[in-house]
Amino acid sequence: MVIVCESFYHWETNESTGYRKLVLHIDNKIENEKDKFNDWNGIYKTCSKCKEILPACTYFFCSGSGNKDNLHSYCKICENAKAYGWGRNYNNELNLEGKHYCSKCDRILALNILYFSKSNGKNNKTGFLSNCKECNGGKFGIYKINGNTSISIESNYKVCTKCLYELPSTDEYFFKNTNRENGTSICKKCKGFDYGIHRTNRVLKIDGEKYCHQCENYVVENDFNNRTCCCKKCAKKKRKLYHNRPEIKESKKVFTQKRRAKKKELINDLTVEEYRDTLMFFENSCAYCGLPESESYVLYDCELHQEHIIPMSKNGGYTKNNIIPACMPCNKSKNTKSLEEFYDFKDSFTEERYRKIVEFVDSNT
Question: DSSP state, 195?
């Protein structure tokens, strides 16, 4: 096979960012080297071992024997060679053209750092190893790009080995690494982060002050909340947003009621999921007057209360068959009354709703 790659690399500038990208010229136009012999007009020779008929040339047979054609009787494969291929003289010709023949994989490649690893020059006059990088267990490309003198990188810049962009060698684009002087070789974006300073209070230290990532300001160290990594003002806003989430409100409500029941040594086994089923049974409205929860927010600025059918003062536990949703006025006016007493007391508490509550209690007892 033949892979011909004349040039080495070039830079492409990204118009949006203004940074250059390294483009390596790895051309994978692959042809079969043996196709050259499809129109072979010379003499053919049969290998004495494998009996394969091959063109009588030094590509398939080693030269230098007592035979008339000056070729070995066995083909190169039968003589334990790794592949068919040309000899050293052919490679010398290719080296003058800036190419090299890898006899292991039967390919002609450009003689540069993309395809061949560098050697000490004692055994190879070219300065590169005889076999290509793929045959030596690697991949085509450049390792240690930033330390390669054959690539012109601007000063105080570094090439990310993953996206191949030339970026400033600063904490904004690359993470620090204790084992390397210039930090990591992969940029922050390729590691799944945005460009910028992370952990500002470790990277950019200012005595007596700390950086708040929420309001993006430096604040006095005493006004900084170390648990939330932001200033106390921003921490207060975060707490408010957290506690106003519906699922957190439900959990807090259940926790508070359970704690009250536990103090009075009453049963307290109602879960959040069970209370959601109760709300669905009463269609997210007050069990006594039918006020929807959405209107409760408008009129009283609060959600429906968890109301005890049998009051806690009369040993009513915090269980599924004793807790129903009620609006704030109904919950307050019921107080310690029994269900029957409240039915006689409240005009908006209809017989239909009374029967629905009884049905609910019976179905969960």
Answer: S
Helices (H) then strands (E): counts for the chain: 9, 16
Q: Specify if 61 maps to a domain.
A: no
* Percent of residues, the chain, with pLDDT higher than 70: 85
First to last CA, the chain: 82
pTM, to two decimals: 0.39
Identify whether 62 is part of a domain: no
Helix axes of 246-263 and 232-243: crossing angle, nearest 10 degrees: 80
With H, G, I as helix, E, B as strand and everything else as coil, classify residue 137.
coil
Higher pLDDT, 221 or 197: 221
Amino acid, single-letter form, for residue 30:
I
The residues near 216 (Cβ < 8 Å, ≥ 6 apart) are none
| 48 alpha carbon, distance to own chain's centre | 59
The residue segments making up the domain with residue 335 are: 252-363
The CATH number of whichever domain residue 359 belongs to comes to 1.10.30.50
Q: What is the pLDDT of residues 90-141, one digit of tens each?
A: 677 777 878 887 767 767 787 877 888 888 766 677 788 888 888 888 877 7
C-alpha dist (Å) from residue 92 to 31, 107, 108: 21, 15, 12
- Indicate the SS3 state at residue 145: helix
Query: In terms of pLDDT, which residue wins out, 92 or 310?
Result: 310
Give the count of domains, the chain. 2
| DSSP-derived secondary structure letter, 222 | G
